[in-house]
Amino acid sequence: MPTSVELRQQRAGIVESMRAITQTAEAENRGLTGEERTAYDRHETDFTGLTERIERQEAEEQRAAQMAEPIRRGANRPDDGGPGGDEQRAQERRSAFYQALRRGLPRMAPEQRALVENAAGEILVPEDLETEINRSLPELTIMRGLASQRSISSNRVRRRSLAEVSVGWGKLETNEQTLTDSMPSAPTDEYTYVEDLYGLAKVGEDELDDSDVNLDSFIRDSFARACAEAEDTAFTIGGGHAAHQPVGYMTAAGGVPTVTAAGATAITTDDMMALIYATPKQYRRNGKFTIPSGTELAIATLKDADGRYLWQPSMQAGRPNTFLGFEVENQEDMAAVAASARVAAFGDFNAGYRIYDRQGMTVKVLTELYSEDGMVGWKIRKRVGGDVVRPQALRILVMKAA
């Protein structure tokens, strides 16, 4: 089922098609032809239908988010799920998880320990808490707001060499279609691997005596922020499976086609326009720039022939700046402008890059290592992968060699 964001993107495409029809008629100083009117009316019907679907999907996503929130029962509120219900068991796992963080698994009762311990002797983060952490990531990262995401249950995903789908006109009964097989005669097996992301958090022993509410907030905020920073770097310049990292879209391993700038030390308007128009039109429509802040500062001074700035600052909080009409996202892990450096990217990141999340975040409690400092350590493991799934949807600007 498509998300509300994907439905909004589909609706934006319909609006673009409707605008193209009217602009064509206006440019020729005429009304709509019968064929154009039919197409326009069909788009208008699709627009209305998608708007209704978006409203239903957003309401469903809001309900799902509310259901994932931890339940706080008051003294006068009955236990909705009953003693054997899913909610009760989830609450028991969460309570056991906090006890494991405070005391370590060896000091817990066997029945509580069984709720949160995996086969490797690690503490499993409860699914509802892991969901809350993952839900916080897009607010802290660039790539999770741009790329598509998928949950999997294995350590790798097999991908076949597959070009774009081929279509053709013809009659089914007489087999007159002219189609090109999109699968090579000798397809190769390619894999995207889920890598282990480790983190270390230290908390004071006195802080562990606080309520579960404070501990809950600390875990969500600190875990999500640490993972977000590491993920964004890896999704951009990660060295791939050989380096135990996701494949960065800015690396040669990502396979994204490149566009060479005219100069070695400065970006021009022509370079950025070449980057845009090198991207196929079906991906250009949803295109976005990713550049570091220093490079954005450099292009912020570029003007058109009439002296107007091509870079436009956002007038609304939370909305990105734009350049040549396309959104600009800052990714600080990209290289600064220099000879032969990969300094900017453009394209439809939702179509071009995919993030794979595997459920099963775990924690190890290090009670003795930092005891002299009055601290308890938590070694966190999160499993995530990322790879370029459609290189043709993106383009990278490479500065000219010196």
Automatic annotation (TrEMBL):
Residues 121-398 form the Phage capsid-like C-terminal domain. InterPro entries: Phage_capsid (IPR024455), Phage_capsid-like_C (IPR054612). It comes from the Bacteria. Pfam families: Phage_capsid. Residues 27-63, 70-92 have a biased composition (Basic and acidic residues). It is found in: Virion. Residues 27-92 are annotated as: Disordered. This is Phage major capsid protein. It comes from Streptomyces cinereoruber.
